[in-house]
Design a protein that fits this description.
The structure is a homodimer.
Chain A (H helix, E strand, L loop, with lengths): L3 E5 L3 H18 L7 E5 L2 H9 L3 H17 L4 E4 L8 H5 L6 E2 L1 H12 L3 E6 L1 H6 L1 H8 L3 E3 L3 H11 L10 H18 L3 E5 L3 H4 L8 E4 H14 L1
Parallel strand pairs in A: 1-2, 1-3, 3-4, 5-6, 5-7, 7-8
């Protein structure tokens, strides 16, 4: 089993999901041991500042350094426990010290397997604005559907700062479901891609009458596969 | 702020407590940043095998290596998120790559501050049998009170495997409280030391009519102090 390195802290609540998820998925495959996991939890405020300033070069450098640190500590494969930072995935991966499992590739592969044709995508403002999932979905023949610019702003404010800290506020959840439901209905989408690792803390199976694409869980599955390959 | 390294996975449930606890305590001091935290989560089954075999040399070596890995990844101060492994604290600390914050020293210092005189101690079989807290408490003039040998065995079986995995079974909790209550009453103890980082998942304030010494929370406080010193 390969030793996995996780870049965490983006935010801390989903890092805990990754940690628990990787352990339970690994032990479901091989119960005789606990996987060795190294987590480098970075400063989320620093990450957000680079993203706000659209200083993608500095963001990539910060994350590339974290991958090096994970490699120094003995990790053999790595992943970023966050969708937003995948905006700079290519810049990191091309000079990466370790193979870097992409959440975007994993989620899009899964959607292709599911036969999805029209995917409603929600996530942080950066994720939606950057077209992070747009290109990857289009390449697989899946139509990406994004909220309007004003709804993107509203979704962002429903994620930061509370949900990012793992806090689900009832009226925020209600509004998030309203926006998502309208997006799905008006565009005849056949799934909702939860394109932010904190969204599964708010939106649960049964909340909406559609297929939920839980990128966190799909990513964990891909990470564990790579650990055992 | 110093970058902290945590040896985790002993077990995973309390590692999550340390991670969340260090972040919230750090942000209570300085809210403008998230602390950088590196976690090396080791194989708990390997640790348990060394402890069962009383192969303390191999256990110390395994943990010393983890401290080196944390140092390689950039940690400046370290701690083991577990009481039991502190049995080999001295062996690790004397050749440690990093200053290692001891849960035993932190807990005993706190009890001294509280004016504790007679401390009932529960924890894993290894912790109770090894006298881990016995000597440290005695040096501070606090009388350590341990369960009988048969009760030690029973407490151990109430910790492994369920509580160690973060699962609290109602009848296990009931029996644990019964043993603890009798230990406190018969020995006139003025506190109960929860000498295993998973015990606070089971025993909560109000469950017993005594002061609870939550070693996990005290350790987190000492770790965060060292990060800011």
């Amino acid at each position: 089993m390969k030793r996995v390195g996780i870049i965490g802290g983006l935010g801390p609540a989903s890092t805990v999901d990754y940690y628990n998820g990787i352990i339970s998925a690994s032990r479901a495959i091989e119960s005789s041991a606990y996987p060795e996991i190294i987590i480098y939890s970075v400063d989320m405020i620093e990450m957000m500042a680079y993203a706000e300033a659209e200083d993608w070069g500095s963001l990539a450098e910060m994350l590339r350094n974290a991958v090096w640190k994970l490699a120094d500590a003995g990790a053999e494969v790595a992943a970023m426990a966050c969708n937003t930072t995948h905006i700079v995935y290519n810049q990191i991966a091309e000079k990466s010290a370790l193979p870097l499992i992409s959440i975007v590739s994993a989620a899009c592969d899964e959607m292709q397997k599911l036969g999805v044709q029209r995917a409603a995508v929600i996530g942080t403002a950066f994720t939606m604005r950057s077209g992070l999932y747009t290109d990857a979905l289009s390449r697989r023949g899946i139509k990406p559907i994004l909220p309007s610019e004003s709804e993107q702003g509203e979704i962002a404010s429903l994620i930061y700062p509370n949900l990012e800290d793992g806090i689900v506020i009832a009226k925020d959840k209600e509004r998030m479901l309203e926006i998502a439901e309208k997006l799905i209905r008006e565009n005849d989408a056949d799934c909702l891609l939860l394109g932010c690792t904190e969204l599964p803390l708010m939106i649960k199976g049964g909340d909406l009458d559609t297929v939920l694409i839980n990128t966190t869980q799909i990513h964990i599955g891909a990470i564990v596969s790579s650990m055992f390959s």
